[in-house]
Specification:
Helix content: under 10%
Bound molecules: alpha-D-galactopyranose
Shape: globular
Strand content: 35-45%
Strand order of the largest sheet: 11-12-13-14-27-23-22-17-20
Radius of gyration: 20 Å
Order of helices and strands: HEEEEEEEEEEEEEEEEEEEEHEEEEEEE
């Protein structure tokens, strides 16, 4: 047998083995499966669940960090492609984090000087980003093991109990995140939580998207629309100054579609501070429900991603800290700006800015936010 014949055969065998060993949930719906993804340093088993919708869109989600490990959506010819950065091998997720695909908590984004005061009590957090706290601290929700309850093959419920004092935050916090892959080609994320003590909370997901396919160059040619008249300018530690600045006449004006790379090299002071875009945009919202936040298109693949959310803001980050040292799925090199993040959330550092919408959660109150990533193509087959 020639090498050429052998390779497809081997791939076939691998796929068959994966299917056979993974069909714990296969009977339940459009063939969601689970398999062991790896072991934590403490020896706990990490599972990888695969959700699949009726259109063949597929999302693989890890119980470690609730990470969206892969997300396969069709291009305009109908060919599926994995459009999120990540690792084939679980061990990749144990490296110092770029937070690929992960659930972020308790507080997505930064808290200045890693401290805040609530009900007159000062709480100290870990300084894991210069003088500040980033994405929940040293062991945020991206690094914990979530309990999984699969749904009908198209959804996965993840729960986590964050104990009072964990990472410095008050209250026993019970968190549930439900990922659903709808038949409209949407990845929907529902976040709910309750606490037994006053606390602060700002949950999000940190997927890195490249609509041309993960590892397929940079995202500077992607076109972006953001439904935001204002954004939060930052200081050199990327902490909001408190000002809500108009995007009018600045490189932050994405109210009409613009290529991400068009103004990223501008001499605008805020672009320089962020090393590109790494800013929170305040969404123009109508009412409390799901409201359109962002739209991204990529010309070659024809893929379109719309983001809808109940959250008041969205962090737009252009992967400025990626530097080509990380090798991801299929050995792809993840260079600077090889992906973009659109993290729906409250404003950064809200606990220290009484003028920002509150992120406080009280006992008896239910935290509930929803974000939808909706995929389509600009014509042709979806
Ligand atoms: C966020 C931040 C960025 C960076 C990334 C992770 O989105 O805003 O500054 O820290 O996470 O690398």
């Amino acid at each position: 047998m020639t090498k050429r014949n052998l390779i497809p055969l081997l791939i076939g065998c691998i796929l068959m083995t994966t299917n056979c060993s993974s069909n714990k949930e296969a009977d339940a719906g459009h063939s969601a499966g689970s398999r062991e993804f790896g072991k934590t340093p403490a020896g706990e088993t990490v599972e990888l669940y695969t959700l699949r919708n009726a259109q063949g869109v597929e999302a693989a989600i890890s119980t470690y960090g609730g990470v969206v490990v892969s997300l396969k959506v069709p291009d305009r010819t109908g060919a599926p492609g994995d459009i999120v950065l990540g690792f084939d091998d679980f061990k990749g997720y144990l490296l110092p984090p770029p937070y690929f695909g992960a659930l972020i908590g308790r507080y997505g984004n930064r808290i200045a000087h890693a401290q805040f005061t609530l009900d007159g009590v000062a709480y100290k957090l870990a300084k894991n980003d210069g003088d500040n706290s980033l994405h929940g601290g040293t062991r945020g929700f991206d690094k914990v093991l979530w309990k999984a309850k699969p749904g009908n093959g198209q959804s996965l419920e993840l729960t986590y109990l964050s104990k009072d004092g964990e990472e410095g935050y008050p209250g026993n916090l019970s968190v549930t995140v439900v990922y659903t892959l709808t038949d409209n080609n949407e990845l929907k994320i529902d976040y709910t939580a309750t606490t037994d003590k006053d606390t602060v909370l700002n949950l999000t997901n940190h997927s890195y998207f490249n609509l041309a396919g993960q590892g397929e160059g940079d995202v500077l040619g992607h076109q972006l629309t953001l439904n935001a008249d204002r954004y939060t300018p930052v200081d050199k530690g990327l902490i909001p100054t408190g000002e809500l600045r108009s995007v009018e006449g600045t490189p932050f004006d994405f109210r009409q579609p613009h290529a991400i790379g068009e103004r990223i090299g501008s001499s605008d002071e805020q672009i320089k501070l962020g090393g590109g875009y790494d800013h929170c945009f305040i969404l123009n919202r109508a009412g409390d429900g799901l409201s359109p936040a962002a739209r991204v298109t990529e010309a070659k693949s024809g893929r379109v991603m719309e983001v809808l959310t109940t959250e008041p803001a969205i962090q737009f980050y252009t992967g400025n800290f990626l530097d080509g040292t990380l090798h991801g799925k299929g050995g792809k090199v993840y260079g600077r700006r090889s992906a973009l993040c659109l993290e729906t959330q409250h404003y950064p550092d809200s606990p220290n800015h009484p003028s920002f919408p509150t992120t406080e959660l009280k006992p008896g109150a239910a935290y509930h936010t929803t974000t939808v990533y909706r995929f389509s193509t600009d014509g042709g087959k979806t």
